Amino acid sequence: MTTRRVGAALVLLAAAAAFAAPALAPHALDQRFVALLNAPPTVPRLVDDRGAWHLPFIHPWRLVNQLEQTYEQDRSTRVRLVWFANRRLVSSSDEARAPLLLLGSDSLGRDVFSRLVYGARTSLGLAAVASLGAILLGGTLGATAGYAGGIVDDLLMRASDFVLVLPAMYVALGLRSALPLVLDAWTVFAFLAAIFAVIGTPYVARGVRAIVRTEARLDYASAAAALGAGHARVLVRHLLPAARGFLVVEATTLVPAFIVAEATLSYVGLGFPDGVSSWGTMLHEASSIRAFTDFPWLLSPAAAMFVVVLGLNLAFQHRPPLSQA
Amino acid sequence: MLAFLARRLCFAAFLVFAVSSGALVLARLAPGDFATADLGVRAQSAEAGRLRSRYGLDRPLGAQYAEWLSRAARFDFGESMLYGRPVRDLIPERAANTAVLALAALAVATLIGLPLGVITGSGRGGLPAAIIRAGSVALLSAPPLLTSLFLVFLAARTRLLPVGGMGGSTGAAGGALADFVRHLIVPAAALALPLAAMFERLQSQAMSETIAQRFVLAALARGIPWPRVLWRGAFKAALRPVASVYGIVVGTLLSGSFAVEIITSWPGLGRLMLDALRYRDVYLVAGCAAAGAVFLAIGTLMSDVALALVDPRTQE
Fold this sequence. Notes:
The complex is a heterodimer of chains A (325) and B (316).
Chain A lengths: L1 H18 L1 H4 L20 E3 L5 E6 L2 E5 L4 E4 L5 E7 L2 E5 L19 H37 L1 H16 L2 H10 L7 H32 L2 H8 L4 H9 L4 H24 L11 H7 L3 H6 L5 H16 L10
Antiparallel strand pairs in A: 1-2, 2-5, 3-4, 5-6
Helix pairs in contact in A: 1-3, 1-12, 3-4, 3-6, 3-9, 4-6, 5-6, 6-9, 7-8, 9-10, 9-12, 10-12
Chain B lengths: L1 H28 L4 H6 L6 H10 L5 H12 L14 H35 L4 H15 L3 H15 L16 H37 L2 H8 L4 H12 L2 H25 L4 H10 L3 H29 L6
Helix pairs in contact in B: 1-13, 5-6, 5-8, 5-11, 5-13, 6-8, 7-8, 7-11, 8-11, 11-13, 12-13
């Protein structure tokens, strides 16, 4: 039970961070520190070199080598952190000289931590919207197939079996590249959500169909029909509630798959455009061996993804994922 | 059995046909074509017109599709515009690389996952079992995208294993095969780890259910030592869940290998497909899709046959 609580806490934490991004991020999304390209994280400290205690502070970075982008801490200067200034939770008292870079900066000098929490909005939001779409679409189709039976059932289930065989990632890739390659952020969001929802639909539809089929044979369903309830009412009010538990579990397996799918598509350059901050575009910008070896903090979106997926798995455990997209 | 096999073969043939046709039509319907992708702003020029007529891009979709289909029936899949070579020559090498990667990952995952699942499922594992269980729950949350990023990071940081640049003249000791194997380790491990975790969990669950059954108790009562009961009797009886999952694993492997191939620069089908899609190289897209569909068809066919052998009820 404790592992479930830990998992739920991780998921809630990520959701809260995404929700509170503007207050949590020390910097604006596109703010650049041109003197601090690929700078390492500034770690908040309480004790200085002589062992004296202070309020939380950071040491500024001093550029050592312009070409190799190596930095060293200026340990003689302390820059205090200020709380609740400019409607931000925490920031540095001397933004120009020593900005607070909790996870370092990227190759354009942007704060990785700020982009990470804003990116959580894009990535988690997309996954949530897409799962909701898949649940609605899959629920409708599955319920129709299960309730109607006959040829409708046959056709829908054959089609969904066929889609289930295909590797989900390639279906997403194919559908995405059938659209114009360059689009604005909101259009990409809508298209990706639609594509993911379609891919997730068969998984949901199959389960809902099975549940509705069994439930429809039970006495309470015929009782409801005998009392004059129409088909729609029997289906929506009486049969579908039986699928609630299944739908919740299904959503928790779809969300991780969609987070990873967005990251993969953006990584290969077919997801969000470069200006948008999502976990995938951040990884895309870090996609060089140089970044892997010298600037590992650029991989923090991968760590964030792992934490969210782990949280979901712990909270709703003991089912192997249907598709590891 | 024969009727069942014939039915499944028909499905496999339909799969290959539908997937490659679908890919061709989808790539053709997409806005832009190879001329615009390759020439950019000069796409309106006479050069673009020549390109289009050479590859049949200026003809209506129906005519283009009909011709592609009639040629594909004779195993001529057209010419790749991006590489200027017949698709038939481009695909086999890349497909072989993907197949090697997927099979290596599957073998490693099976060899690691199943024994570990027996240990954790036996209920007598103690601390090691708890550690293995925690490890595989963590790995289940790390899809191939994340494991390959992490392993590439490790490999680049420690410089123990090469990433990318296979076949380059880096003076690698041991010749081409050793070079191939050394480059295979990172992508195969990235693909295998999440799969091994899934196998471990499935086998563990099946083991603990099997061990609770009476035949295990009976075997113990007859004096058969515990390890023998565990690894011979119970292990075999608990194999069915993993065996039935092998069917969906083919799709999972192909999906996962896409991310792995891109990140670790493994020259497989995924990379080729991505380039083909980006450049609107319609014949290459269709060829890659056909090759992937053949993999899928073989995989589902094999798992169907295996399941039918294990459990005759699946033949209906």
